[in-house]
Amino acid sequence: MATVAPESAMAGLDPMFQPDWFFTDEQLRLLERLKEICEETIRPLAAENDRTLTFPRKSLEALAPDGFLGLMLPKEWGGLGQNHVMYAAVTETIARHGDASCAMCYVMHIGAVEALKLRATDYTIEKYLKKVKEGLIGTLSYSDPETGSHFWYPIASGARKVDGGYEVLKKASWTTSAGFADFYVLQTTSPDYNGDYSNLSVFVVDKDEIEAKPQEWDAMGLRGNQSGTLLLDWKFVPEDQLVGPIGDGANSNDEAVDPYFLIGSSGCWNGISLGAIDIAIRHTTVKKHKDVGMRVCDYPTIQDAVGEAIMDTNASRTFVFSVASALDKVTDGAQTNPAIGDLARGNYLHWLWQIKFNAAKNVAYVVDKMLHCCGGTGFKKEPLQLERYLRDGKAGWVMGPTNEVLRQFVGKTALLGMESLDYWNVSINERALNNELKKFSADQKRELAERLIAEAGNNGSSA
Ligand SMILES: Cc1cc2nc3c(=O)[nH]c(=O)nc-3n(C[C@H](O)[C@H](O)[C@H](O)COP(=O)(O)OP(=O)(O)OC[C@H]3O[C@@H](n4cnc5c(N)ncnc54)[C@H](O)[C@@H]3O)c2cc1C
């Protein structure tokens, strides 16, 4: 016989499993306050936002008054002056106690805010960063329809210099909060682009300039996240809205966009894992089988599954907090940035790839196992809402950089060195080339040589 207690009567994972030693007293107080906001405002909206594909504007705005939208901004700009470790904990808390869609919109918002902060000017501080406290929401628009999850490689976009600014084309295949965010940090090839795709520039544009199609968004999970297409159609962007110098895009990726996505999304995946564990603990400790006189949690198989999920998730969390604290050390707790051309966070990319891979791999496993623990009751939408955590968690593996790409990055870097990654496909694989040439007959070599000489005369183009 099923007996499901109301959610308010259930506790979830005991707080003794919280790695509190990573946080100061002030941070623990802030996390408690954030949990209250999640429980009072964000969580009650999560199921309906998921059902109706509603952008979590109200949930994001609920984070503004206490300063969470400017988590790592200096206090004099209305921020909380917090660090990278706290950022991981905040995304985790929103996903666990609030709503994972809201957590992912928050991640993209913080990515946009920090990309602006990296190259802050008086103009961007006044127009965007100081307004965040009032509920101004930003996002990142990077993924390109031509290059899939290789979001660092925008083929379908461009920029040209005109009087007083630039005309910018951005075609994005995915942009979280598209059509709902107030400002968009986006990347295109530079105005002086000459075939080198690593020559990228960053712009910030306002809501009125972009075209989005939220009506087309529908997805398995993170449904409130509204990650639709975006078009900025050769619109004029004033000089002041160029973020950093021309050609700063690759550096901005390594120093802001990648680190803040990888930490924040890892926090989000870990939060979903914890939320699923909470639900499984709450449910299995009250559901009874009267025939054998046991609760579901009394079966050793359930204890094993919950124990393993806690250990794997805490391994992932402490890994995230540890790498985040490495970034804190080199940036004075996210309060300083390296000079243009230098890297601080970017020197830890090979660690940041690992945390996202682990957290995304773990969440996919944990949500499955917690579903098994909760049985058919977990499979239904209500009352547990576990199936939403399962669907939301599945986004972890496929969001770029995807887990396929990340494990290859790490393996290739370890085996062949960082330079072997060749993000923009420019290095020549001479080993493969010479190996293929060995197979050519004399006539085939002559034919190839003639073709190459003709192409060389045509400025190297095969056209
Ligand atoms: C919920 C959600 C929110 C998102 N929000 C944003 C956002 O705010 N901004 C943004 O810019 N983008 C966003 N994205 C886009 C995301 O980062 C990826 O670009 C997108 O998921 C790629 O989808 P695709 O179908 O093009 O995948 P593809 O790139 O076509 O991948 C298909 C398969 O090929 C594999 N693959 C790809 N490249 C390689 C490789 N080099 N080696 C081995 N395997 C490879 C992939 O791992 C995958 O298994 C979001 C995506 C999701 C799901």
User: Termini separation (Å)?
Assistant: 72 Å
The structure class reads: alpha+beta
Give the names of the bound compounds.
flavin-adenine dinucleotide
Q: What is the CATH class name of the domain at 138-249?
A: Mainly Beta
Number of strands: 10
> Are there runs of 5+ residues with pLDDT below 50, and where?
1-9
General form: globular
CATH topology of the domain at 138-249: Butyryl-CoA Dehydrogenase, subunit A, domain 2
User: Order of strands across the biggest sheet?
Assistant: 1-4-5-8
What fraction of the residues are assigned to beta strands by DSSP? 5-15%
- Quick one: biggest sheet? 4 strands, mixed
> What's the helical proportion of residues?
40-55%
Radius of gyration: 24 Å
The CATH homologous superfamily of the domain at 138-249 is called Butyryl-CoA Dehydrogenase, subunit A, domain 2
Order of helices and strands: HHHHHEEEEEEEEHEEHHHHHHH
CATH second-level architecture of the domain at 138-249: Beta Barrel
Count of DSSP H/I helices: 13
**Please, what is the average pLDDT?**
95
What's the topology here?
Layout: H1 25-52, H2 57-62, H3 84-98, H4 100-118, H5 122-127, E1 138-141, E2 158-162, E3 165-175, E4 183-189, E5 200-206, E6 211-212, E7 228-238, E8 242-243, H6 249-284, E9 288-289, E10 294-295, H7 300-330, H8 349-379, H9 386-393, H10 395-398, H11 403-416, H12 430-437, H13 442-457
Parallel strand pairs: 1-4
Antiparallel strand pairs: 2-3, 3-7, 4-5, 5-8, 6-7, 9-10
The structure holds flavin-adenine dinucleotide (FAD).
Flavin-adenine dinucleotide is lined by residues 108, 139-143, 148-149, 151, 172, 174-176, 222, 225, 227, 395, 398-400, 402, 404-405, 408.
